[in-house]
Write a structure and sequence with these properties.
This protein is α+β, with helices and mostly antiparallel strands. The chain contains five helices and three strands; from the N terminus they run H-H-E-H-H-E-E-H.
């Protein structure tokens, strides 16, 4: 992600996504549980990890794995505050991904 379109600057509002990142995001969201977690995070501006743990019947280790996969795909940011982890969706990346999907 990062190429600028100099001929049509209005296209810079939605960044161009590299093929590799598009594939990473698609793979991350292909898992039903991970998609459910992502959807839950996307509904909020920021969400504490403990809030998801209360909603989903999965172990902390499994949740941690899914969050790491979403973070590695570039879909979410994790912010640590003492013992707590807060998550938020990378909206710019999400918009770029949706834009690439629309091109198919």
């Amino acid at each position: 992600m990062g190429r600028l379109n100099r001929r049509a600057p209005w296209r810079n509002l939605i960044p161009v996504m590299e093929s590799k990142q598009f594939q990473k995001i698609s793979k991350a969201l292909a898992d039903p549980r991970r998609y459910e977690i992502f959807s839950r995070i996307a509904k909020e501006k920021e969400l504490a990890c403990s809030e998801i743990r209360c909603d989903l019947p999965i172990s902390p280790a499994t949740l941690s794995h899914h969050l790491k996969e979403l973070e590695n795909a570039g879909l979410i940011d994790l912010r640590r505050e003492a013992r707590f982890v807060h998550m938020k969706v990378q909206r710019r990346v999400w918009r770029a991904y949706l834009s690439e999907l629309n091109k198919l």
